[in-house]
Amino acid sequence: MPRTSNLSGILVMLFAVGVFSLMDAGLKLLTPHYPATQVAALRGASSLPFVMAWVAATVGFRSLLRVRWSLHLLRAAIGVGMMVAFVYALRHLPLSTAYTIFFVAPLMITALSVPILAERVGARRWLAIVVGLVGVLVVLRPSGEGAWSLAGLAVLVAAAGYAVSAITVRVLARSDSTQAMVFWLMLMMTLGAGALAWPHWVPLRLEHAWIIAGVGVAGTLGQIAITEAFSRGEASVIAPFEYTALGWGLGLDIVLWGVLPDRITWLGAAIIVASGLYLIRRERIAHESNSASPRSTCESGLP
User: Fold this and answer.
1) Residue 261 phi, psi (nearest 5)
2) Which partner for 249 in 17, 95, 174, 203 could form a disulfide, CB atoms 3.0-4.6 Å apart?
3) Mean pLDDT of the region 262-273
4) Contact in structure between 300 and 290 (CB atoms under 8 Å)
5) pTM of the full predicted structure?
6) DSSP class of residue 85?
7) Does the pLDDT at position 76 exceed 60?
8) Phi, psi of 213 (to 5 degrees)
């Protein structure tokens, strides 16, 4: 992969992380005024018109019907639960703390790839997963004044949901387009979270219209950008830049809410990020080894 492709992929990833962070800040601004299920529904509904325009301009709507419905429904159900849990956490935790705990998701994806995708994970990568989980415990501090609370646990639930959803994407990507995956997730999230929110629906306030619109624009741009980033460069080079979300979370926490994480949270964040970066490095080595050895590729259990 040429260095220029990786560089452009990195720049697009940095943009994706930035706009996703702005979207999360918008969701956090909405949480004091609306139930978590309603905010999750608004996240899907606000992006849906932009996603439909993207579909119309690229693959067309007919292609959306030739999909693996069972996996899309499963991913949608997971997506609703993940978004509701994450929105609930945002109501009670600073963005930077929520991001720190959520960074365990890549470790969960690697762990889940063993039973679900029959991938091989070596001892060093398992060690990185364990170290990352230790970092989560440092942040949560079950016996102290950390993020151990329903909100902290909600982030873990959201991270687990994200990990399972990512595994389903790796399966769906073999047959379905990116546009189909994004469209059906946004539509089903809107309908599913909306149905859950309907009994306690709070009328929308006019002063929040710009926040809701911003969530829709940022969510759509972020989804398109992150897809483009991974299509331009090597995943092992691009993925580490997702951790720049911590910087965005810190800056937004200071500007919008005037809060800072404590030193123990920073320590936990360092452990989680370091283990994640090491895991990405080991996966790159494993990928290069498999590419060089046809026998290893066949033994991975993947087609």
Assistant:
1) -70, 155
2) 95
3) 90
4) yes
5) 0.86
6) H
7) yes
8) -65, -40
